[in-house]
Design a protein that fits this description.
Blueprint (H helix, E strand, L loop, with lengths): L1 E7 L1 E3 L5 E9 L3 E10 L6 E7 L4 E3 L7 E6 L4 E6 L8 E10 L5 E5 L3 E5 L2
Parallel strand pairs: 2-11
Antiparallel strand pairs: 1-3, 3-8, 4-5, 4-9, 5-6, 7-8, 9-10, 9-11
Amino acid sequence: QVQLVESGGGLVQPGGSLSVSCAASGSIFAIIAMGWYRQAPGKQRELVATINRGGGIDYADSVKGRFTISRDNAKNTGYLQMNSLRPEDTAVYYCNAKIYTDARTWDDYWGPGTQVTVSS
């Protein structure tokens, strides 16, 4: 069994910063990639950023230059640093990880989500 637990998030004023983290635990053989998605009210879940085990990174155009994704492979933990936040960044942020639980079996796992609200 694998669990992802997010922490961080909260309320911040426009232009402010927040960070969220995602810790994976359980029967982990290897983590292929970690990522962050978000879902605003009435909208579909969208990709924010992903990082693979080798450090390759992709960002949504809307967050490039403002958000930074990183990971600590030794701790099975991913991070998302969010700067210059805008009201349109308000959403529930979900951690995703593609995890091998043994040498041949991998699956997608999701955290429960953490609320990020950008408002004055």
